Here is the input.
Amino acid sequence: MLYPIKRYIKFYAALCCILSSFSLYAQQPISLNDSFEKLLQELDLRLTHTDQYKKKHLDKIQETKILQANARTPQEKILQTRILVEHFLFYQSDSCLHYANLAIKLSKEQNDKSTENQMICRKAIAYALSGLPWEGEILLDSLLKTPLDRYSMNEVYKSKIDILEQFQNQDLPNDLVTRNYIQMETLEDSVSKYDHEPNSRLLRLKYRNNSEQEIIDRLKVSLSQSDNNTEKAAYAMIIAGKCQQQNKLEERNRFWAMAAIYDVEVHKMTSSALVRLATLMMDRGDWERATRYAQEASKRAIFYRARSQSYELSPILEKCLAHEKAIRKRNLVIFGSIIGILAVLAGGFWYGMKKHKKQKLNLKNLLEQEKQMYKTAVMKGNQQEESMKSLSEGLMHFLSISIDSIYELGAMRHTVMNKIRSKEIEQLAALFKGDTNLARNQKNLLHRFDIAFTRLYPDFQKQVNALLKEECQIETPDNELLNNELRLLALLKLGISDSSRIATILDISVNTVYFYRNRLKNKAVNRDTFEEQVLQIAL
Here is the structure.
């Protein structure tokens, strides 16, 4: 019964390991052309996965320890011990020194001078990284007094360069700083002489001023081709130093960020790139990143016991802490101000509620009065509405009578003219031939209509012009209230939309009515809804 359960537990544990490591492989690889901001974002992302990088590094150490414990030959044991020294060199100084001493002891037993000298060099570097560069320098100086082969001589010179770099973090007099730089340039010449491996030589060409751009180009090629993140970090830091010498500060910042990314990925505990970025972010005012990078670098330096780097980080952390305190103080002041404002508002609210209670009875009476006034206003409004309705109906009645009269007069005229054509009554023909009376009556009828309509809609012309384009406004002479265009719109407003009936009222042809309506629509701001808007004109 227990066997299936154990199998499922193992499967679940394996699945969790796969999922936890998937985020590492899912990260975007960086390139030489990435912008500084993108590199910072990638660095921030990798800093959130430091536990996974640590686990990966510790797994490698554990595997090497197992291989060392199970070594069958002294040479294999020495080899695995050397690998452990390399694993701990930038990870933990005490363990590095322990395994370096062990490797030196095993090498002496096997009379392997080359490995013994190399481990002494690693021990010297571990002293320097721990904040004791003079101890490492003394160790290398004593080694130089012994007979050395070409390979060991090269290792000593490269180690002396690495140790002298640690003196840069010390507060030294200017003459000693100058001496160290001169000595490092001399040592680089020695490395170039004894080291025939091109990439290894490039890692030490940091302080020579000749052919800087050529060195940078070669370093970039080596960086892009290397598969070792520790080497990539070293290449990136050297390129950053060369760019600073050329005053290419943006380029320098990008390679600092690259070096920091590679340092995080290999879980390197002594990361100068993180320290440089913390200082840069502080100078740029990005305090959030400055604090994050400085705290991460400080945590790593304390773990490694890198005294020089901890000393270098102290003023940065103090400034970040001071800024954080200032932010907290400002937030506290803002919080206190908000509390004060809320207290004032609460007091005002309490006072208002108290005043509201006192005025409650008065407000109740006022509400009753307003209700009564509202009822009175509604009644008056209804009366006015009824009055206007009656007025409109009267106007429509007046128009109907007038239209009927016009129709009758027209019919009478037609009858009379027929009789005249029949030569029955010549006098009657002479009387009606000029149709002066009919024209006068129609003119008087339209005048009375104008008066009645403008009393009902006094702002009709103004409201119509508001619907027309600015250059197409309708203007009437002083002796006329409405012209034919306005009368046509007035008839539409009153509900008379039949063009033939409108033509009869205005004594014009139906085609003229169509022409007027079309022209008015063309003048309108909105042609499609013009007549609907005319119908909505209020009193």
User: Anything to note?
Assistant: The longest helix spans residues 360-421.
